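Recall the central idea of this unit: under ordinary conditions, the amino acid sequence of a chain determines the structure it adopts. In this exercise we apply that idea directly, starting from the sequence alone.
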Amino acid sequence: MLAYLFIIVALLFRWLNVSGLPIHLLNFTPVAAALLFFGARQPRTRIWIPVGLLAVSDVLLNFHYGYKFTPDFFVTLAWYAAIALLGNALLHKDSKPLRIGAASLLASISFFLISNFMVWMVWDMYAKNLSGLLGCYAAGLPFFRNTVTGDLVFSAAFFGIAYLVKAHAGDEADHTVAA
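Accordingly, the structure predicted from this sequence is:
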C-alpha cells in the first residue's frame, strides 16, 4: 500500500511546481524515490502503473505550461520505467541504506545526464556542438543539486517509513501473541 501512496505523494508534489515554487525548490521532488520504492516493493508486472500515472501527469503539466511534445517526453517515460526497474533489481531483496543511497544517486545522476542531453538535443537553446552541450550541463547544475538532495531525502524517508511500519507491525504481533 505504501508504494501506491508514495506515487500519489510524488504526483501531488509535482503539482506544487504549478503554484510557482521558488527556483531553489525546483527539482526537489519525491519522483525518483517513489519509483525506486515502488520497484522495490511491487512486482515488475506493475511497473506500468507509476509510469502511466507520471505520463498522464507530464501530459497535464505540458498542457498547463503550453509545451509542445518532443522526443524528450518519451525519453522521460523510459527513464521512469528504468528507475522503477532499478528499484526492483537493486532493492527488491536487499533494501539496506547503502544500496538505497547508491540507487538514489544513480537515479539523480542518470536524470541529470539524460534530461540535459535531451534539452540540448531537442530545444534550440544551445549550440549543437560540444561547447553547447557543456553549457547545457553547466546551466543544469543548480537543478542537479536539488535533484540529488530531494532523491536522497525522499528515499531515506520512504524506505525509513516502510521500515518503521514493518517494525511497528512486528511489535503489535508480538504483543498479540504474548497476550
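Residues 174-179 have pLDDT under 50 and may be disordered.
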